[in-house]
Amino acid sequence: MNGKVWLVGAGPGDPELLTLKGKRVLEQADVVVYDRLIGPGVLGYAPPEAELIDVGKSGGRHPVPQGEIEGILIEKALEGKRVVRLKGGDPFLFGRGGEEMTALTDRGIPCEPVSGVTSAIAVPASAGIPVTHRDYASSLHIVTAHKRWDAPLDYDALARLEGTLVFLMGASEVGEICERLIAAGMDKNTPAAVIERGTTARQRRVTGVLANLARAARDDRSPGVQPPAVVVVGRVVALAETLDWRARLPLTGRRVLVPLPASRGKNGGRLTALLRSRGAEVLETLSSRTEAIDAPLPHLGGYEWLVFTSAAGVEFFFERLRADRRDIREIDAAKIAAVGSATKDVIESRGLRVDLIPSVYSGSALGKALRTVLESPLSAGSKRLLLLRAERGAPDLARILREGGLDFDEVPLYRTVPIVSGDDRREDADLGDVTAAFTCASSVRGFAASYPDVRVRAVCIGEQTEKAARESGYETRVARKATLEDLADAVEEVFRLAK
Ligand code: SAH
Predict the structure, then answer these.
(1) 37 CB near ligand 1 (under 6 Å)
(2) Contact in structure between 321 and 328 (CB atoms under 8 Å)
(3) Which atom in ligand 1 lies closest to the alpha carbon of residue 199?
(4) Which of 112-121, 140-149, 315-324 has the highest mean pLDDT?
(5) Ligand 1, atom 6: nearest CA belongs to which residue?
(6) How many domains does the chain have?
(7) Are residues 241 and 254 in the same domain?
(8) 343 lies in the same domain as 317
(9) How far is the CA of 20 from the centre of ligand 1 (A)?
(10) Is there an atom of ligand 1 within 6 Å of 88 CB?
């Protein structure tokens, strides 16, 4: 038996507040058992084949009872699985991590806590409130306002404390917390704040004093405070206005989807980093992967040209040759054409020189370039071509060759399969009314295939990408120049116009 359970703190919501250790453990998980407070993006670190088990409250269902959660952890670990129990914030702060670790240890199952960034500190910070400060507060007291917690709160003791008070699980109790602190003798003009969904795009902060906080929150938005929320009481709250760093970022409060083809790897893309640094909440979706087509290649002699239209096609071609114990020398003196520089690089890394690459990197430009060469009187070979590419590749190339009366065979080497990433397999995934930033046409197609029912506002890096987005029925906008910075600028523009 090699099973083990890690109790991992996922942080308060912003996926970048997951620890490096938490990320490593998630990336190696067989099973992920998660709560409803896990931030969007965090589950994206789990391998696509990992089993995801939602034990939180979602879609109107009640949360799975604690005993059952422990049962799941024990069962999966006994099957030899690497189990990640993912919790909001820190696993040992009001997260029942202690109980779960005890249950596992009693059964002799190895269990390791991975500390997380707690909402008790990070949520106030995200709203411009440092929980301690030399001039205002020299202690911090974190309490739960949850009624079912065994010992009732001693408000007399709390009211006497000089430090900052942070209440968790108190969204429906804001009025009562403030009243009872005042009744216990605390100054009714003590600054207080409530922060909902801290560190996420939907963060909302309401500040006031004990005497008016509940009313202020209701006036700001009915029906008042919604969970998850923290209540902060103390003089440090007065700093919130001047230290409100989030308000200064252009994309604060905005959610942007960044769909990525699987070949690009996930998480940590440059575009994601750029958008996050401007304040956006970024959801990366890995929306497709490639899969080899298991069919033998024809005999490769007798062709004048071999034509490759993607780097992946080149890789699958050589894999196929090798799997069938064949040899590239079969191609004899055939020439090689590539659609663009990335494809060319992969071919040349195999020790083969590319003879033709069009000046514009597209299937139709490649078709025209091949026709020009083959129609020239200098071309004296068989004039037969072999197209080595994806199943249902873009039709332009074949059409142009056919129109030129050229003789070609086509071998589909691989196909693109849509996948839905861990994040979007969540029952509470919310993909409605989204702005998405696309860096290539294939990520548009991959996304459209994986999420046929989702309509996005598509911000595109260039013309080809925009064309694909329009064909998928999306509303579009193109970056001024084809750089990631300009793409991020275009995203900002879309939100400015939407205001
Ligand atoms: N272990 C968690 C706390 C679990 S109790 C931690 O360390 O953060 C759940 C409570 O945490 C919620 O009721 C709420 O008070 C607080 N909380 C968690 N995430 C929050 C967020 N993004 N914004 C505001 N409060 C949050």
Answers:
(1) yes
(2) yes
(3) 22
(4) 112-121
(5) 89
(6) 3
(7) no
(8) yes
(9) 20
(10) yes
